[in-house]
Amino acid sequence: MKKNYLFKLDLKLLNIFSILILVFCLVFTFLLFPSSMLGIVAIFDNTKELFLMLPLLLFYFILHELLHALGYILNGADPKKITFGMEVEKSVLYCLCKQNVSKKNILFSLMYPLFFIGIVTYIISIVFDFPLLLLLSIANISGAAGDIMYFLFIMKLDKDIQYSEMDDGTSFVIISKKNIDNIKHPGIIYEGIIDEIPRNDFRRIFISKPSIIVIVIFLVALIIGLLI
What does pTM read for this prediction? Predict the structure, then answer.
């Protein structure tokens, strides 16, 4: 008999992991591509580029979530079941698929942003000497810390499991015939077994009030950057 195992992402450990990835990427770039690293430093010396970088960073993170959605859809999910959210107070932007999906589906969805606008764009930025794209790529790789945690955890599970996301953007359910409550993974907290997966909250786009303030700040930064 299948059971619904509820798990939650440890946000404190997620933030630590994200910072470690950021530091690693910057050190890696400095050691192997010092001239590219100097290009990143130059961005912070140019006021106009710095202000323009802020809204571009927001756009890049939104693109990150759109690629999650693309990964879901290309691997069989219903586009009508996709919803997006932004909650800066939780340090999360998210794309949720409000249906049960296969292990293959969720693994591809998790890796699309990291691969396409993280690793691929990192390589492109190094080859063509594009410091701004390099900085955005590094930020995206760091921002994929939760995706990496999910990916490594789900890789431990049987291929016949199903994955489903909760409404809060940080919790998920694994549907499995086997007992998986004893599978431990850093950053993933086991919450227990639930009878049903709630599907009540189905807003296609949810933006918290603190997130609206952040968006306004980013837009103001864009205007200032264009006027300088």
Answer: 0.91
C-alpha–C-alpha distance, residues 169 and 65, integer Å: 12
Q: What is the pLDDT of residues 116-132, one digit of tens each?
A: 999 999 999 999 999 99
Helix residue ranges, H only, the chain: 11-32, 34-45, 47-74, 103-114, 120-127, 131-143, 145-155, 209-227
The mean pLDDT of 133-159, rounded to a whole number, is 95
CA 67 – CA 147 distance, rounded (Å): 12
Residue 185 is part of which domain span? Answer: 3-227
Rounded to an integer, what distance in angstroms lies between the CA atom of residue 141 and that of residue 106? 18
Spatial neighbors of 11 by CB under 8 A, at least 6 apart, are: 90, 91, 92, 170
Q: How far apart are the C-alpha atoms of 189 and 12, rounded to whole Å?
A: 12
Number of domains the chain is built from: 1
- Tell me the residue type at 92: V
Q: Residue with structure tokens 């693994």?
A: 107
What secondary structure letter does DSSP report for 179? -
- What pLDDT was estimated at residue 84? 92
